[in-house]
Amino acid sequence: MKILPIKIENFSYTVKDNEILKNINIFSEEKKITIIAGNNGSGKTTLLKFMHGLIDDPSNSITWGRNHTSEIKEKQSMVFQNPILLNRTTFENILYVAKKKRVNERNSVNKIIEKLNIESISKTDARYLSGGEKQKVAIAMSIIGNPKIIFLDEPTSQLDPVYKNEIESIISDLSKDDTKIFMTSHDISQIKRIGEEIIFLDKGEIIFSGRVKEFLNKKTNDVIKNYINYG
Q: What pLDDT, on a 0 to 100 scale, did the predictor assign at position 154?
């Protein structure tokens, strides 16, 4: 099933007369890391949730290849800013997802634990993991079943530099493994390090969509210029 390009055409979202997203148009066809950026309240997470299907799109404005979001749900996964884990060990958390997705359970779990270098915490209960460890486990859970699209919502915003570097490395490796990454971020340094495409929102509107290199040279827009200088 071909799931790229993603197309979003003339999409808007309003809650109680408050227009959260305004006339969104997106076209992305390359399996690269696409950053969704913008200041707080710009609509980044809401857009990500629509793309993943966590918020229903009754207008069917979002298509993946020739499919609507609901038709490719099993090909996607999402990692939240605050990881959602069961009160079980790392291994059991990942195994739970493997069972739900009906993949070769223990073999797949062990491979992913090895891939993400989390053997040392495989028997540790999630309640006793650090923030960085929880995020690594959440990413491990998200790649069970080899999804074609992974959404990450500010995955490193609460992490120290060491874990931030580790998570960024994992995200880059996933992208090289033929997985399309959509990731929200407010960290301009991070965007420079790993971003390839960027969709920049301001008050619910896209004011830039294109290559990160082009974005960094965008000197004419004050919102973007301030973001680059102080983000």
A: 95
Q: Are strands 33-38 and 197-202 parallel, antiparallel or unpaired?
A: parallel
What's this model's pTM, rounded to 2 decimal places? 0.94
143 class by beta-carbon count within 10 Å (0-12 exposed, 13-18 middle, 19+ buried): buried
Other residues' Cβ atoms within 10 Å of the Cβ of residue 216: 15
Under a CB-based contact definition with an 8 Å cutoff, are residues 91 and 123 in contact? yes
The owner of tokens 């294109």 is 210
Class in CATH terms, 6-84+133-139+147-230: alpha beta
Q: How many CA atoms lie within 13 A of 215 on its CB side?
A: 28
Domain boundaries, the chain: 6-84+133-139+147-230
- Identify any residues that bridge with 64 across adjacent strands, giving them in sequence order: 6, 67
Pick from 94, 135, 87, 85: nearest CA to 114: 94
pLDDT in tens, 103-145: 877 778 999 999 999 999 999 999 999 999 999 999 999 999 9
**Contact predicate 4/28, CB 8 Å:** yes
Looking at this protein, which amino acid is placed at residue 154? E
Which residue, chain included where needed, has tokens 């109680």? 16
**H/E element, 194:** helix 188-194
- For 168-184, the pLDDT digits (tens) are 999 999 999 889 999 99
Angle at 163 between CA 158 and CA 167, to 5 degrees: 95
Listed range (79-83, 91-95, 217-221) with the worst mean pLDDT: 217-221
Mean pLDDT, residues 4-27 = 95
